[in-house]
From TrEMBL:
Organism: Melastoma candidum
Protein name, as recorded: Uncharacterized protein
């Protein structure tokens, strides 16, 4: 037997190696990025597509046809996506005319009162200037599609579709051209291509799509950015009021590149290329990679598409991710992307827990319980009702399979949240699944982000209340409790504050660009959705709701896109970088109680959490000064980052004057990019001071003088030169330098502050972040 085993071992090993080699050479989806587009208006696109096939055929021994290529990119940038073997991908990446080749990975979705709350920060004088907005601003939403029947996409009162619109409304069996109108002017979808094995080989499979949203995410973001005014909107009576987008007069075009499973990077690139070609002014993308697996700028589909969008005058706004509160989790950090974090508004959703002794404890949740109160039930702690052989720590956290159904059935269960990898939804399903009558979660960190428990009695309390509950359970013979239905608390404070989940800076790829750029409402935002007949979420006697409360930087992103549309409607010729600068330099850094913005822990929020602050769209209509960041600035950024000149030339093509990188290009020079904020990765206490340059353009009164004021932490010396800038009919732009000295600054940590230029009417604030090292 021993000899027999030895005999078969080499054969088995050989078969494993052969199988592994077969898998390695099986075609998989890749994106081939070839830089800026070389197609001029009127040039034969069919010839371009043929050239892509010829290029692919030149490095492949397989039999190929036009169907071998999934998507062609040819308007704003050049390239294609196709199923390639690893050898083919490697061969293409080594070609001079190819910038990068990367796998077609799946990216993830970052999932009324908010707009009214944003307006509170603007004076009546500023708001009154915004009378009759133009209605030809077009916002492109790349997401999960759209539910066109929502009242948020009603086109009443809108004029004809802008003549420059070149898009389309794609028809499928469940989506007709008539579903589009003067509000929802375009709807595209992209077939999802997957790699599937039939037992002997890998092959490409196309799954047909539709513009219709089945998830609700795309409908929510589209209506937040530019939805029409809808009276008496609510989520089963909660948050009742007028639902509207930031720019109700804007037009919406949707591009379905995502499903419930995620978003294909090749489809996102195609959607961006189409959106630019169609004529959108602003693209809103609430999508991104995991913060743990960030790729560099030339292998990131959103960064690639956004660069060429910016090059062609289209602003791209992206969510910054939901991986907070840990540092260095922010994504979509390219300087040409407007990166958005999430904040709260002055509204809370409270669900009170009443103990059997009459004590009332404030909780947070969204639930729909019948009547004014629920029935009283016995209350138990998860740690004391563990299933057999289950560690107490697991039952305390209400792990799947950790609770004994016999001990839990008919009771309210108290769970703690010492393991954040287990979501609230999972804990709720675990408790509900073993027959409990309700759940109390002890976790103060997420109370600002209410969990939607549907019809199941649920509330979340802070640690102090949790201690009181456990003490009551431990000292009472027959402890009981009741969870009351949700009620809305308006005008709560302090607001805004940075959401617990909002991803933080500094950026992983470079710390010399400050990210996120800004924060906007992203907690419990009411907007349109896909009506669902899910019995577990629709209250008895109610029809499925067309509106829902959602949280995430996904919800914050369209708030900024809508704000940009407001500005674009009033200032048609402002570039994306000017609009971005206006929103950043006029952002507010104080709450509704007049104190500095805070994070979810109650501490003063830093620029790594809040960026330049909370958007104030109406203040941004008149910023005074602006930082114009040009395509040449972004190309210099790529030089400083270390990309080869030939790759950068391919990206630039003929749309810029770029010829070569500066002789001494280093990452430290990134801080000199003309950006509306300042970030310095390393300032040595013992080394030389660091000086950065900025240039501002006057968008205010022709004759004006601005004086600089500096706010800086103790020990960090910040000098602005010149200290005063005068503008006149012949002087519209001016430069200044900022020198940072860290000799006496606190070492080994970031120092934050700001520089504010003021002419008595305008305040132009530029926040800075400087990492001082001993």
């Amino acid at each position: 037997m021993f000899v027999s085993s030895l005999f078969y071992l080499p054969l088995t090993f050989f078969l494993l190696i052969a199988a592994s080699a077969s898998l390695e050479t099986s075609p998989k989806a890749y994106v081939v990025y070839m830089g800026g587009s070389s197609i001029d208006e009127g040039e034969d696109v069919e010839n371009m597509e043929s050239s892509h096939l010829q290029l692919l055929s030149s490095i492949s021994s397989r039999k190929l046809s036009r169907e071998s290529i999934l998507h062609h990119y040819h308007h704003a940038f050049s390239g294609f996506s196709a199923f390639l073997t690893e050898n083919e991908a490697s061969a293409l990446s080594s070609r001079e005319d190819v910038v990068s080749v990367f796998p077609d990975s799946f990216l993830h979705l970052h999932t009324t009162r908010s707009w009214d709350f944003l307006e509170v920060g603007s004076s009546e004088r500023i708001r009154s200037r915004y009378h009759h907005p133009r209605n030809d601003v077009i916002i492109g939403i790349i997401d999960t599609g759209v539910w066109p029947e929502s009242p948020s996409f009603d086109d009443e009162g809108l004029g004809e579709i802008p003549a420059r619109w070149k898009g389309t409304c794609m028809e499928t069996s469940d989506f007709k051209r008539s579903n589009c109108n003067r509000k929802l002017i375009g709807a595209r979808y992209y077939d999802v291509s997957i790699s599937s094995s039939n037992g002997t080989e890998e092959r490409a499979v196309k799954l047909r799509g539709t513009p219709r949203d089945s998830v609700g995410h795309g409908t929510h973001t589209a209506s937040t950015a530019g939805g029409a005014r809808v009276q008496n909107a609510s989520y089963y009576g909660l948050a009742e009021g007028v639902a509207r987008g930031g720019s109700p007069s804007a037009r919406i075009a949707t591009y379905k590149a995502c499903s419930e499973e995620g978003c294909s990077s090749s489809a996102i690139l195609k959607a961006m290329d189409d959106a630019i070609k169609d004529g959108v002014d602003i693209i809103s993308i609430s999508i991104g990679t995991s913060s743990l697996f960030q790729v560099d700028y030339l292998n990131d589909p959103i960064a690639i598409g956004a660069f060429h969008a910016e090059q062609m005058g289209v602003m791209v706004v992206c969510s910054g991710g939901n991986d907070g509160p840990e540092p260095s989790t922010v994504i979509n950090t390219a300087p040409w992307i407007f990166t958005v974090g999430a904040s709260s508004i002055d509204r809370e959703f409270q669900s009170t827990l009443v103990l059997g002794n009459g004590k009332k404890l404030r909780g947070s949740a969204i639930n729909f319980l019948n009547g004014t109160s629920s029935r009283e039930y016995p209350i138990v702690f998860g740690g004391e009702v563990a299933a057999k052989y289950v560690p107490v720590n697991e039952s305390r956290n209400c792990y799947p399979g950790s609770l004994d159904p016999k001990k839990v059935s008919g009771k309210i269960v108290v769970c703690i949240n010492s393991d954040p990898t287990l979501t609230r939804r999972v804990k709720k399903l675990v408790v509900e699944g073993v027959g409990a009558k309700g759940m109390v979660l002890v976790d103060g960190t997420l109370m600002g982000n209410p969990f939607d428990a549907g019809l199941f009695p649920f509330t979340q309390v802070d640690d102090s209340a949790g201690s009181e509950i456990l003490k009551y359970i431990g000292t009472t013979k027959n402890p009981s409790a009741v969870i009351l239905p949700t009620h809305v608390v308006s005008n709560s404070s302090p607001a805004p504050s940075v959401a617990y989940f909002s991803s933080r800076g500094p950026g992983v790829l470079t710390e010399n660009i400050l990210k996120p750029d800004i924060i906007a409402p992203g907690i419990a935002i009411l907007a349109a959705t896909v009506p669902t007949n899910d019995a577990s979420s629709v209250p008895k006697g109610k029809k499925p709701s067309g509106y829902i409360l959602k949280s995430g930087t996904s919800m914050a992103c369209p708030h900024v896109a809508g704000s940009a549309a407001i500005i674009r409607s009033m200032h048609q010729w402002w570039s994306p970088s000017v609009i971005k600068s206006a929103l950043m330099t006029t952002a507010t850094l104080s709450s509704n109680v007049g104190k500095p913005l805070t994070d979810s822990f109650g501490q003063t929020a830093s620029p790594h959490e809040a960026g330049s602050g909370e958007i104030s769209p109406y203040k941004a209509l008149h910023p005074g000064l602006a930082y114009e960041t040009t395509t040449e600035d972004y190309l210099l950024f790529l030089c400083y980052y270390g990309y080869p000149e030939n790759k950068i030339r391919a990206i630039a093509r003929t749309k810029t004057k770029f010829t070569s990188c500066p002789k001494h290009s280093t990452g430290d020079l990134i801080s000199n990019i003309n950006y509306p904020s300042i970030s310095i990765q390393t300032l040595s206490k013992r080394g030389a001071p660091i000086t950065v340059k900025r240039t501002v353009t006057n968008f205010g009164p022709i004759n004006s003088t601005y004086i600089a004021a500096v706010e800086s932490p103790r020990g960090l010396v910040v000098e602005v030169s010149p200290h005063e800038i005068a503008f006149s009919p012949t002087v519209r732009r001016a430069s200044y330098r900022v020198t940072f000295r860290g000799t006496k600054a606190a070492g080994d940590n970031y120092n934050f502050g700001s520089i504010t230029w003021s002419d008595g009417r305008h305040s132009v604030r530029t926040v800075f972040s400087v990492n001082v090292v001993a």
